[in-house]
């Protein structure tokens, strides 16, 4: 083992890494012209390292060791960080507890930040050397990082387990890499927290007990996703035109536009010609934004001045001057006021816009009211956020994968079978992959594909290969999006208000995962689609008891049970209102509901206790909810396997679950039809009728089979309609 020079003889240079090219040693590629950080530099700039994920903030790409004031500890920090980046260095390999896999730059940036805080805390504690570090100080630092303090030093909260783990981990790292350090080291016999791992010290909850990320509540998800889809489909094309108008206005009305004259005498002739054009076209004069009007009032303008809201600077640039000088006002006031009296003043953008259908589909109205420039830019940003929300909620892509999307990521649509179009988008999987990520594709539905197309059109510089979104803060964007939907602008378009509730990209991904898991084979499907780690899939193939796959299935089953209970309760309420089920199993289900309803009748109750609340009703319905299975066109009440038609047809009468794919609900005595199934049967009847019309006269056997299928679909529709008609409606 290569042993560094003794601490006492250190001359301020590393005995291990002196003169090292950091990027070359760590295997990080840089463009030829980029500056290469060296070990002795106090700032290691990794900004131009090839392959860094777009999600990585620029501030974390610069390692600032100068924030550590003590030169000895600064050298310790450099040696520790570089050792984490170069686990195969000749002096790092022999360390028994060193990392064997290079840490990501993002992780190393976090370690450096925590190390800087730790050294600053040691300085406040008047600790002169790491040799003085003992168990008491380790416990004190962990306690210091455990709590949130106010400006008076009072405890107002507790930090997350991740923060506590970071604090404990940096102490453990100083112990594990002790032999490597040149200028200062912790004592050789230091074993903080008895050698426990940082996660155990921080009391990190076990991630295998349950998924800590909660799904988005339905009350929030439904109006949020409806608003996002509406903005993408209805307002998206108009937002593209608005963005182009803003870009064109910035080009022509900017103070830095080419050809503008500097200060000079008032351009009376140019203004006269410009104002005449405004009058000829009946175009209102441009209006100042409210904050600029406030600035004028603060500068002494008369609140009753008719020119107060007029954007004279915009007019000046349209007339060829760089700005409107106050000394010109005396000469130009008359022409300006005369034109103002004829055409008025109005916000610049969105004056004459197309009409769109409101979100409720009842009315048509202008897609936006007139806007100031900042309002127009904000509206374009809201539509872009709607595209991001649609993409995240319906595709399930991670934040890192969304940020790696680039212009041109949409693959040409495929049509594997006639009438079925498949849409794909390409990005990179970053999590768990080598630096630079791994190219991959996602199969998406058409609304996601169109949202990506809209985002490309809204891009400021839509060149192939440019980042589509880059790094963005979704929580900030979503807050703006929700506020706009709930504002007068969103309500004017008939959008439903979005209630308060936490929404982030992880929650959207979790929500989609649960929805996919409800489908047959959905657990494996979303493992593949969401690019999850392979261990859970492996456990599923091996049918191992326990494990991530079994825990996930248990969680999905819990959600499925809750959903079934809600469905049974809804159908019971329909029964109480006279809306009855249809189908072969309708009589059995109706008798069950009648039995439950009799128990709820206070006059029929023999005991003093009566059951009236939803909780009591759910308790009575729980047993029936356990045997409910959802088919595409019916509910299956699997109470008696011996009566299940699907099991008889399959020759498996002792199975404990129905074969929903083989269900013939029009003949099975345990199947029922409800109003929610009517559209499926009606569509089936319509398509069957079309097929019948296309059959030739010679295909009698096929015609007879389709005719029977068509008649059965019509019969089911008629039964649903008859059972759904209440007494009041029939009267």
Briefly summarize what is shown.
The chain has 26 helices and 14 strands. It is mainly alpha-helical and 731 residues long.
N-C termini distance:
96 Å
- What strand order characterises the main sheet? 9-10-11
Number of strands: 14
> Mean of residue pLDDT?
86
Structural class: mainly alpha
Q: What characteristic shape results from the CA principal axes?
A: globular
Number of helices: 26
**Rg value:** 35 Å
Outline the low-pLDDT stretches.
Answer: 1-6, 534-547, 607-611
**Sheet with the most strands, sense and barrel status:** 3 strands, antiparallel
> How helix-rich are the residues, as a percent range?
40-55%
Report the portion of residues in β strands.
5-15%
SSE layout and pairing:
Layout: H1 22-26, E1 43-45, E2 62-64, H2 71-85, H3 105-124, H4 135-146, E3 147-149, E4 155-158, H5 161-176, H6 198-201, H7 218-253, H8 268-281, E5 285-286, H9 290-298, H10 312-318, H11 329-343, E6 345-346, E7 355-357, E8 364-366, H12 373-395, H13 399-403, E9 414-417, E10 420-429, E11 438-444, H14 446-457, H15 474-486, H16 488-492, H17 505-517, H18 522-529, H19 534-542, H20 547-576, H21 586-600, H22 614-626, E12 628-630, E13 635-637, H23 645-650, E14 671-672, H24 678-694, H25 700-724, H26 727-730
Parallel strand pairs: 5-6
Antiparallel strand pairs: 1-2, 3-4, 7-8, 9-10, 10-11, 12-13, 13-14
């Amino acid at each position: 083992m290569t042993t560094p020079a003794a601490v006492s003889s250190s001359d301020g240079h590393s005995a291990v890494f002196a003169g090292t090219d950091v990027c070359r040693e760590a295997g990080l590629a840089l463009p030829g012209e980029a500056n290469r950080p060296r070990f002795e530099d106090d700032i290691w700039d990794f900004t131009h390292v090839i392959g860094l994920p777009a999600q990585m903030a620029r501030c974390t790409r610069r390692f600032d060791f100068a924030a550590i004031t003590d030169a000895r500890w600064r050298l310790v920090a450099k040696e520790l960080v570089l050792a984490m980046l170069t686990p195969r260095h000749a002096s790092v390999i022999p360390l028994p507890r060193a990392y064997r896999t290079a840490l990501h730059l993002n992780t190393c940036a976090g370690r450096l930040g925590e190390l800087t805080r730790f050294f600053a805390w040691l300085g406040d504690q008047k600790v002169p050397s790491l040799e003085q570090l003992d168990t008491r100080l380790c416990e004190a630092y962990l306690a210091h990082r455990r709590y949130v303090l106010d400006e008076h030093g009072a405890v107002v909260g507790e930090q997350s387990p991740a923060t506590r783990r970071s604090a404990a981990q940096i102490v453990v790292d100083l112990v594990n890499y002790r032999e490597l350090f040149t200028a200062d080291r912790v004592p050789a016999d230091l074993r903080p927290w008895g050698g426990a791992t940082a996660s155990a010290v921080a009391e990190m909850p076990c991630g295998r007990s349950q998924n800590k990320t909660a799904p988005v509540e339905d009350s929030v998800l439904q109006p949020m996703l409806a608003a996002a889809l509406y903005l993408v489909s209805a307002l998206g094309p108009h937002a593209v035109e608005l963005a182009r108008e803003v870009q064109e206005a910035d080009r022509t009305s900017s103070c830095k536009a080419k050809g503008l004259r500097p200060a000079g005498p008032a351009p009376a002739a140019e203004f006269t010609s410009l104002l005449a054009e405004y009058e000829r076209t009946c175009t209102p004069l441009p209006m100042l934004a409210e904050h600029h009007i406030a600035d004028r009032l603060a500068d002494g303008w008369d609140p009753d001045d008719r020119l107060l809201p007029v954007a004279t600077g915009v007019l000046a640039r349209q007339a060829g001057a760089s700005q409107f000088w106050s000394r010109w006002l005396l000469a130009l006031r008359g022409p300006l006021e005369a034109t103002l009296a004829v055409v008025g003043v109005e916000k610049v953008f969105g004056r004459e816009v197309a009409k769109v259908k409101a979100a409720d589909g009842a009315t048509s109205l202008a897609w936006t009211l007139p806007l100031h420039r900042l309002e127009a830019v904000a509206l374009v940003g809201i539509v872009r956020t709607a595209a991001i929300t649609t993409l995240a909620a319906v595709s399930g892509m991670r934040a890192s994968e969304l940020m790696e999307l680039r212009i041109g990521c949409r693959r040409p649509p495929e049509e594997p079978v006639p009438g079925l179009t498949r849409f794909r988008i390409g990005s990179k999987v970053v999590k768990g992959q080598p630096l630079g990520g791994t190219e991959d594709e996602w199969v998406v539905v058409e609304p996601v594909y169109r949202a990506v197309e809209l985002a490309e059109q809204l891009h400021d510089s839509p060149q192939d290969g440019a980042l589509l979104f880059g790094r963005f803060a979704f929580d900030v964007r979503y807050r703006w999006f929700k506020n706009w939907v709930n504002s007068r602008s969103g309500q004017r378009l008939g959008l439903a208000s979005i209630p308060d509730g936490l929404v982030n990209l992880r929650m959207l991904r979790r929500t989609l995962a649960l929805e996919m898991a409800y489908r047959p084979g959905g657990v494996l499907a979303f493992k593949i689609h969401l690019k999850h780690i392979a261990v859970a899939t492996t456990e599923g193939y091996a049918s191992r008891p326990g494990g991530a796959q079994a825990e996930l299935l248990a969680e999905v089953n819990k959600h499925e049970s809750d959903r079934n209970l809600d469905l049974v309760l809804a159908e019971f309420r329909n029964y109480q209102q006279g809306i009855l089920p249809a189908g072969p199993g309708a009589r059995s289900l109706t008798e069950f509901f009648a039995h439950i309803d009799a128990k709820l009748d206070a006059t029929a109750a023999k005991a003093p206790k009566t059951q009236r609340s939803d909780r009591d009703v759910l308790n009575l319905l729980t047993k029936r909810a356990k045997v409910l299975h959802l088919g595409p066109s019916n509910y299956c009440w699997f109470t008696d396997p011996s009566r299940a038609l699907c099991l008889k047809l399959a020759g498996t009468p002792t199975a404990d679950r129905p074969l929903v794919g083989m269900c013939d609900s029009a003949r099975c005595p345990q199947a029922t039809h409800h109003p929610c199934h009517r559209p499926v049967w009606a569509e089936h009847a319509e398509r069957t009728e079309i097929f019948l019309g296309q059959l030739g006269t010679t295909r009698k056997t096929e015609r007879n089979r389709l005719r029977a299928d068509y008649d059965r679909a019509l019969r089911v529709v008629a039964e649903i309609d008859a059972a759904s008609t209440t007494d009041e409606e029939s009267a």
